[in-house]
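Retry 2 of 3 after timeout on previous attempt. Resubmitting structure tokens to design endpoint.
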């Protein structure tokens, strides 16, 4: 009986430890994009120049950013997704194709959905807080 309990616990632990590969890749894309959106937002606020984000066929691009000599990561070049079949779409504001990242400290509430395989992940800001992953229940 003890052996059966140990095997059941081990099986349950292994099941919980194994993550869906597509979900993990999408989560990595989401965290990366949220960090880059916040970096562009900060750069827009410090420079006083509006920066926008746009999805492009192979990835995404920031428009309005200037090359900074002291920056360790440049936002001026278009970026590709980590996984080739990843796509994104701005869902808020309705009908928008870009995210506006400043230069004002308070921006409009915005959302972007990232798609990879059969998974989706939503990043959102209320305009004051940072872009973050939001649960699907909050997805319009």
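Retry 2 succeeded. Sequence:
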């Amino acid at each position: 009986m003890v052996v059966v309990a140990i095997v059941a616990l081990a099986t349950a632990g292994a099941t919980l430890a194994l993550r869906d590969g597509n979900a993990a890749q999408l989560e990595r894309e989401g965290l990366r994009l949220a960090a880059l959106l916040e970096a562009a937002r900060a750069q827009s606020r410090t420079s006083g120049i509006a920066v926008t984000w746009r999805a492009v066929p192979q990835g995404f691009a920031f428009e309005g950013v200037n090359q900074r000599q002291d920056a360790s990561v440049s936002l001026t070049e278009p970026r590709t997704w980590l996984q080739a079949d990843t796509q994104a779409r701005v869902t808020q504001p309705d009908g928008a194709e870009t995210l506006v990242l400043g230069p004002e400290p308070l921006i409009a509430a915005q959302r972007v959905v990232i798609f990879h395989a059969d998974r989706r992940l939503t990043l959102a800001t209320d305009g004051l807080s940072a872009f973050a992953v939001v649960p699907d229940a909050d997805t319009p």
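Attempt log closed. Residues 21-47 form the longest helix (27 residues).
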